[in-house]
Amino acid sequence: MTATFEHVRPSACPACNAAPAAEHLADLPLDATLMLSLPGIHCAGCISGVERALLKVPGVREARVNLTLRRAAVQAGPEVTAEALAEVLERAGYEAHELDPGVLATTAADRAGRDLLMRLAVAFFAMMNVMLLSVAVWSGADGVTRDMMHWISAAIAIPAVIFSGRPFYVSAWSALRARRLNMDVPITLAIALAMVTSSYETIHSGHHAYFDAAVMLCFFLLAGRYLDHRTRASARSAAQELAALEVPRAIRLGDAGEETVSVAELVVGDVVRVKPGGRVPVDGVVLSGQSEIDRSLMTGESLPAFAGEGSMVSAGEVNLTGPLTVEVTAAGRDTALHRIADLVAVAESGRANYHSLADQAAKLYAPFVHILSVVAAVGWWLYTQDLRIALNIAAAVLIITCPCALGLAVPAVTTAASGRLFRKGLLIKDATALERLAEADTVVFDKTGTLTNGAPTPLDLDGLPGDAGRVALALAQGSSHPLAVSLAKALAGQGLRPAHVESLREVPGHGVEGTWQGQVVRLGRAAWVGAEAAAETATFLKIGDSAPLTLRFADTLREGAADVVAALMAQGKRVIVISGDTTAAVTRFARDIGIEEVIAEALPHEKAALVADLTAQGAKVLMVGDGLNDTAALAAAHVSISPASALDAARAASDMVLMGRSLAPIADAIRTAVSARKRIRENFTIATVYNVLAVPLAVAGLCSPLIAALAMSLSSITVSLNALRLK
User: Fold this and answer.
1) Cβ atoms within 10 A of the Cβ of 415, count?
2) Whether the predicted pLDDT of 148 surpasses 70
3) Which is more confidently placed, 435 or 534?
4) Would you say residue 622 has pLDDT above 90?
5) What does the alpha-carbon distance between residue 506 and residue 513 come to, in Å, rounded to a whole number?
6) Burial of 199 (0-12, 13-18, 19+ CB in 10 A)
7) Transmembrane segments in this chain: where (predicted)?
8) Does residue 583 or residue 540 have the better pLDDT?
9) pTM metric for this prediction
10) Where a domain ends, among 673, 698, 718?
11) Looking at 634, 656, 673, which one is the last position of a domain?
């Protein structure tokens, strides 16, 4: 598994709650807290296993793991390094990588959600109590008794409305300062006018006060706001996630020998050493050494690439087999990895320009409401010369036209749709994701790790002659190369025991060799063992002087991939596969799965450029990807989905996350999104029809503010029931 460090937030996962609380770690001094990423942990047993392994390290005072974030925070003395902790975890069977804690923002608990829930509770308490007091007035209380009920209602409602309605007031004030209107402007005016009118009536011993209408407005609108909030997952910026992947320290070679320095101190021309298993800290050229580089995060290539003298390497790539000496050509903000982070940040800011259906409705609705209320107030004042009647009718118009139904129209539907998709294994992170998904007409898939499982699987192992399988197992167990790891796992799964191979050693960039029964045995590249290169992914086994054996591999199709491609095409979607893999491999794969449009050997910025080009042509792109090389494209797309197995940065850049292995929920998600958009428009129609019928009554003076509030509540309930049809 892999480990990365950052400040840890409390987890909602029961397994994480079983572990000791980690909230106080954010307050620890930065130089005493190391952050590790643990992408392979999956249960409470992993939590205890990782924490036990870390606590055994001398100098470690405290270690806490967050299962939801798959990260650990360690408080340790200055003599303890993140590299040493990662090595300890690797030996314990957990993949671990260091993160830069200075880059990661502290992730607090869901303060916004708690704040809304608290205000909703206060509004509910006030509403129920004021309604009880209003019953006495409706029952015929008069004189001093009625006035007392009104004053008690005022004492409850005024502070409750001031406190509960704050989100609407702040939003309305921000909109007015920017010289624009939003839904919260008429909401704020309706609440304010209801409170002013009610206070005026109470002071002058009027027969009617409408504090219950004001708190009822607050309650229903806060319920809609909280539903809207719940549809979004709290996720950090993808750009921050990418920046945290940058290696914070490097081993610099100088006249005094090796020294560990901050990457920020490196300049062009410096020479650094990259150990096997380490992430490359800079962009540079290899001066000496041979190894294989895992570039899957950067380019999507499914197989490691050979790196020798003169080879170019990039920050974020993983050195697999041998030590490398690298001359720095770019460091820090100038690296390819950081440029991808910049691309993501630009794409994320562009996506924020999307205007939801509710926003579009507000542009038309808010001015109409304000003008109508002013006209009604002025008209009745001119007709009656009674300011009290004019204010009452203006309040009734504002309340009956208050966009409570419109405010609930979108969150009620998205909450119902989100619940349905959650049960099918798809988590929605962004409030407008469903609306954008319903508009998608072009689907772009990454190949490796998205349509496929991203791990090579050996083929035809049953046909290995004699002891070849046992020899291959012994050699494969001596290498960390992805093909060797997969081969060793498959052979061991067949019940084979490794042969007794002596003098086992890994030759960086070539393979593994040893001696078996007096013969030299090798497992590795074709040229190294004297074999002809194969067209497909393969490694080669040579035993003594016998002819080399070809061990072929194939990346297996992800569950549901073929079905979802067929379903999308049946829906009339344009489907494209884009990959950093070779043209032959991508073309052959696309033909097998039924996709005609193929783009191969694509770099990260080229993937983002493709999405931008499609968008410029008028397409609404759904991007599905899982790697670092997909992150900019995920952020640039109209809407995006990533699997749960994706890199943290890819998940953060996506609007939705597939929680299971299967891709099947994607097709159903599009159908649900289209249905949800239909329900939203139906809700807008319901709200509009309600206003067309109710507004004339309010303007004519036939509705008191209280009746207006009850009518508004009825429309809100109707909208919510219509949204539940999605379930």
Assistant:
1) 23
2) yes
3) 435
4) yes
5) 6
6) middle
7) 116-138, 150-169, 181-203, 209-227, 364-383, 389-414, 684-700
8) 540
9) 0.55
10) 673
11) 673
